[in-house]
Amino acid sequence: MTLALTDLDWPVRTDRLELRPARTEDADAVWPWYRLPDVQEWTTTLSISLEDHQQWWDRSLTSSVVGILDGRIVADGKVQLQDAWSQADMVQQARGQQAELGWVLDPAVQGRGLGTEFAAALLDLAVDGLGVRRVEASCFAENLASRRVMEKIGMRCEGVFVEESLHRSGRWLDGMAFAILAREHRARRA
């Protein structure tokens, strides 16, 4: 049986953050910083209006988690279950065996280690909560902040893909893929 984020015990607490599943009404709370150019530089979805943002937000609720600091949402992330690639006769065994992580942090709180703390908690949710065997994350190679977070939480770079990602600036940028196995994550924490 594959677990979902809603099956986990909430809230989850880190040293400074409280994490919980995102709710439809959270779209309003993150919109003021989600629409900033510094944030939109690296996000995959560009919402022009609060209405667009709300529609996108609602479509992603099943895999979304928010991070709360002092009563305010300062981070949004995803833990999206995926099926591992497999041969056709192994599809059932590969179902739900990995997860993709992603995160966005309010620029007002950047530079304090909260992105790393939030991403580490998402990794723990995937490995310990959902029981996946592999966790992946990707970014534009120029997104140094995300790359550093992935490295700090123990993920290894598994690929650099030359000019494979079309950025909304119109430039083709290099993409990077990072991953960690559940057993590596557990050994790293031990």
TrEMBL record:
Enzyme Commission (EC) number: 2.3.-.-
Domain N-acetyltransferase: 17-174
Keyword terms of this UniProt record: Acyltransferase, Transferase
Pfam families linked: Acetyltransf_3 (PF13302)
Alphabetized GO MF terms: acyltransferase activity
Cited InterPro entries: Acyl_CoA_acyltransferase (IPR016181), GNAT_dom (IPR000182), N-acetyltransferase (IPR051531)
Name of the top EC class for this enzyme: transferase
PANTHER family, alphabetized: GNAT FAMILY, PUTATIVE (AFU_ORTHOLOGUE AFUA_3G00765)-RELATED-RELATED (PTHR43792)
Protein name: GNAT family N-acetyltransferase
Source organism of the structure: Brachybacterium tyrofermentans
Classification lineage: Bacteria, Bacillati, Actinomycetota, Actinomycetes, Micrococcales
